[in-house]
Design brief:
A: 115 residues; 7-stranded mixed β-sheet; 4-stranded antiparallel β-sheet; B: mainly beta; 5-stranded mixed β-sheet; 0% helix; 44% strand
């Protein structure tokens, strides 16, 4: 158990819908990262927040957005869902804002299925 | 695109040492090499990282060649629970960039 929690575990929805994925980081961690893992794309970095502020952006679509709240939990919002958005979405957390000694701890993931 | 190259799959007998190679020929002088693993659909798990010296922790050893263009992750006594996809990562813009990794299967 990494100490990172994600809800829900599974989510099934229809195309065009909007969903919210939630992540609670390990106690004391200030950074939250979001990753998407699909069968054809592998594990892709989406976005990082550090202490409430956006820190880095990866391959995140404009239909997706995220935020980190004052209690440091984070939400990833996915809208206008398409079939291709079906994937595992992982959240990770770390103590600092990044760097070589800032180990990332991953949550168990949310499996999103878009029908 | 990842900056590393790994074999797509490997097998290792239970109880033997598993040696997973990784090429990172374009690595620059101050870039670290990280290893993570992912056990079937679980979140990736950090294993070890290094810069130029060999590193060892309770999970594994990391051997980095002197020119730093390749490295080897060693699991000294592989168990069935070590079956996983192993990722060798050189961060891009300080972000972990996962490639396709090596699928390691431990054979009983």
């Amino acid at each position: 158990d990494s100490g990172v929690t994600q809800t829900p575990k599974h989510l099934i929805t229809a195309t065009g819908q909007r969903v919210t994925l939630r992540c609670s980081p390990r106690s004391g961690d200030l950074s939250v990262y979001w990753y998407q893992q699909s069968l054809d794309q592998g594990l892709q970095f989406l976005i990082q927040y550090y202490n409430g502020e956006e820190r880095a952006k990866g391959n995140i679509l404009e239909r997706f957005s995220a935020q980190q709240f004052p209690d440091l939990h984070s939400e990833l919002n996915l809208s206008s869902l398409e079939l291709g958005d079906s994937a595992l979405y992982f959240c990770a957390s770390s103590v600092a804002s990044g760097g070589p000694f800032d180990e990332q701890f991953f949550g168990p993931g949310t499996r999103l299925t878009v029908l | 695109d990842a900056k590393t190259t790994q074999p797509p799959s490997m097998d290792c007998a239970e109880g033997r040492a598993a040696n997973l190679p990784c090429n990172h020929s374009t690595i620059s002088g101050n870039e670290y090499v990280y290893w993570y693993r992912q056990i079937h659909s679980q979140g990736p798990q950090y294993i070890i990282h290094g810069l130029k010296n060999n590193e060892t922790n309770e999970m594994a050893s990391l051997i980095i060649t002197e020119d730093r263009k390749s490295s080897t992750l060693i699991l000294p006594h592989a168990t069935l629970r070590d079956t996983a996809v192993y990722y060798c990562i050189v961060p891009i813009n300080e972000k972990l960039t996962f490639g396709t990794g090596t699928r390691l299967t431990i054979i009983p």
